[in-house]
Amino acid sequence: MSSATQPTDEDPDEGIRDLVDLVLKRLDMDHDGRVTYPDFQSAVQQDAMLLEILGPCFPEEQVAVAFLSTFQEIQIPNSICFIRPNNPAVMTKTG
């Protein structure tokens, strides 16, 4: 029998309990055994990465760069070319 399939004396939920205890210790700022919104807000203000303790919420760097690039200043030309519907000639308007 391999070591991976041998039964152990450890409780399978022990790792989960340890993780929950760690999260509670990090988020329960007033040590009352509860995580309230002010506790959470204060903990996250001290360490923004605590947002990810409950699951991923920050985008990958490439996604963030692509998103932020949509808000960069767009250079609008001084003249705009357009075609009039009743006159196919291209007209230029300068402004």
UniProtKB/TrEMBL annotation:
- Which Gene Ontology MF annotations are present? calcium ion binding
Q: Where is the signal peptide?
A: none
Q: Which residues form the EF-hand domain?
A: 15-50
UniProt-listed InterPro entries: EF-hand-dom_pair, EF_Hand_1_Ca_BS, EF_hand_dom
Keywords per UniProt: Calcium
Where is the organism placed in the taxonomic lineage, from the top? Eukaryota, Metazoa, Spiralia, Lophotrochozoa, Platyhelminthes
| Name the record gives this protein | EF-hand calcium-binding domain-containing protein 1
Q: Which PROSITE patterns match?
A: EF_HAND_1, EF_HAND_2
